[in-house]
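Question: I have long wanted to understand how a fold can be written as tokens. Here is the record:
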Amino acid sequence: MNSDKTIYLIDGSAYIYRAYHAVRGLSNSRGLPTNATFGFTRMLIKLIKERTPEYIVIFFDVKGPTFRHKIYEDYKANRPPMPEDLVLQIPYIKDITRGFNIPVMELEGFEADDLIGTAAQKAENKGFKVVMVTGDKDFVQLVTDRSIIWDPMKEKTTDADTVRKESGLEPLQMIDVMGLSGDKADNIPGVPGIGPKTAISLIKNFDSMEGLYEQVDTITKKKQHEKLVKFKDQAFLSKDLVTIDRNVPLKFVPEDYKYRSPYNEILAELFKELEFRRLQQDFPKKTDLSNKNYHAVYTEDELFRLREQLEASDIFALDTETTSKDAMHADLVGLSFSIKPDEAYYIPCGHKYPGAPEQLDKAYVLGQLKQLLENPEIKKIGQNIKYDWIVLARHGVNLAGVVFDTMLASYLLNPSKRAHSLDQIALDFLDHKTISYTDVIKNVKDAKDGGKNGFASVPLEQGVPYACEDADITLMACEVLEKEIEQAGLNKLMDEVEMPLVSVLKDMEMQGICIDTERLKSLSTLFTERLTFLEQDIFSAAGEEFNINSSQQLGSILFEKLNLPVQKKTKKKTAYSTDVDVLTKLAPMHELPELVLKYRTLAKLKSTYTDSLLALINPETGRVHTSFNQTVTATGRLSSSRPNLQNIPVRGDEGVEIRKAFIPRPGWMLVAADYSQIELRILAHYSDDNILIKAFLDEEDIHTRTAAEIFQVFPSFITPDLRRQAKTINFGIVYGMSPYGLSKELNISRKMAKQYIDSYFARYKGVKRFINETIEAAGRTKTTSTLLGRVRLLPDIDSPKKTLREYAERTAINTPIQGTAADLIKIAMINVNQAFKDKGLKAAMLLSVHDEILFETPPEELDASEELVKEIMEHVMDLKVPLKVNLDAGKNWAEAH
């Protein structure tokens, strides 16, 4: 007997459908739908992780008729065929099941339910406890004192007591209940007019369907009696249909269902193909370092020999280990190098922990390597090498000869992919699981310093292989990625835009920008006062005090107390949504939503800028150093973080006040150079539209011109509101805005929005042609690209799902526009940076925000630097219309904007 053993019987077919509906819009870069596969996989992982099953088997339906179809031809006749995008996922789901080494059971002519019912009974007979893993209500009939149901998606367990408590019946009696009430989903008729509640009541009174019909004449409700008598045969047929067969001819050999370890090799390949990034990390192929030659460099002789090898090489990979993720705060702990695959060296020079071996002095190491690292003739490659460049520069070494960054290459190949870390690159391109930093540092966190010194606290037994692997894998990945970049035709973009930009961004990050601390402090106080006043206004408008930051409390006041129309519920449909869109819609109806919007905006500005910026001032430089990211946005635009300086509102008093806190160094000036309507100019170039091109060549106000075209009014009669609407339409067209989107933006009817768009395309025929041709080309290639060849993959461009397809179409339209604008500003930054150096100017670029470059200059260089920047930016590329740059100078960012 196995009285202490538990077996898990998984209803695989039911979970495939549940996973399909639970996870939406997921596909890999080739367009293969993966939503059901992902949801199903997460369910298996949850089961294995939480329950650690000793015995387990999964059951699937087999295509084709079952015995139920023989007794009732219309069984499940109402069910639509399996969705095409789910059909494609079934083979992967079954492969993943086998990858997890879970036994699979399926039998022609029987449903998974019957196989589970039979297996449960046989398992009970052999002394097992049974857990049926399903969310299907039909399985309640199988519940016994030894068999229960567990639904991992709802975290619900159903045992015999649960059934008794919820229905007042024994589990087996639920067959009679389902026979009477039927099941629309499976086209089981039951008795018309008898629902589940009535059926439960009847079976409670008569114990069974047989008992009910023996005493059917005692039913006093006339209609109920008539239906029961008339549909008696249908009721018993339905009972047969819902009864799970427990006598399927299958063998039950417990040892065949004993759970063993998953096949990581199989799962790693599947998760790689499906692009399940996190699961790739969790189920990797075995890391094998046995064929690697990793060396620690502890002596001067070893350092000299390494230096000779590096000097003799054409190219090598390098990496730094430090105490912080912030390059402007990080202390150097060691350097690693790789010249050929499977071999690397690590020079520790800053590891500090009890028992740490003697290491070479940091200044000595850098002194010995300085000439080599600063030699532009010896090529260097790295992963996110901007970080290492800044760290080395802060330690007196000006790196030169940087030619390749594996992170940038991975990004260019697929900018929509979120992860471009070395760990992910190793999995994607080398099928190698790297040693993770988390694993290396986790034991250190238990030490006395809690690992606060980062890698300096890592013992060298773990530190050496980790650091060496970083350089080794970077070198190996470079070889693969260079070929991929070449095959994709991205060499020019990599070599002439992205790589040269790394050096520019490195200089800008190190420059940082001055902050007027006194202004920020006074602003913080002022914002606190304004928030207090807003709070009182909000309470007055609401008629009571409440937690303004509680969406639940705010929703209750808006929709229950004030009876404002509910716009939408939260994702789980359990509460009112009070997001920005909802409050914006409600603002014209009542003062409270508008006040809350103001409160939220001000509170965010206070926490994100006036309070946080003070803490981000670097004590060494007295300036704030944002980090510019090249591999975050799918369009190619730069983003910034720690702090994000691209989200400060351009309009509004608070945004202006915050910008006033950004100042040049004493006595200097800030200059903002901003491209004027660059995206619309690029649209004119792409579309070759006569009206657009003429408007830009004649230096007309493009929004006034569009208003005149759409509303059929002379330009002199265009009001500010008509111009505003035209501006929204102009930029809406660039982003592929639908009539629904435009109606929301302009607060007009969808019909009117459609008329505006139709009128726009009737006048701007070239734009319409460009959009149609772009979508058509994207449909053929499943890609879209910029003028410089930046590529974005569009796997969903022919998706049967309308929302996914329309999003892909919008992306196909706006990527050439927005992406080309991003490319142009990057080239402008590279050229401006070089021109400042060539001309010997002290002026320096500080920030890049969307289409704007901000730089500081001494007063005596103001005219020269402005003229130089304007000339470079306006001639960065020849388009069919001229590029135009607006320049403003001032003593702070607000004045220069």
Remarks:
- The domain at 529-624 is CATH 1.20.1060.10 (Taq DNA Polymerase; Chain T, domain 4).
- The chain has a mean pLDDT of 90.
- The longest strand covers residues 315-322.
- The longest helix spans residues 802-838.
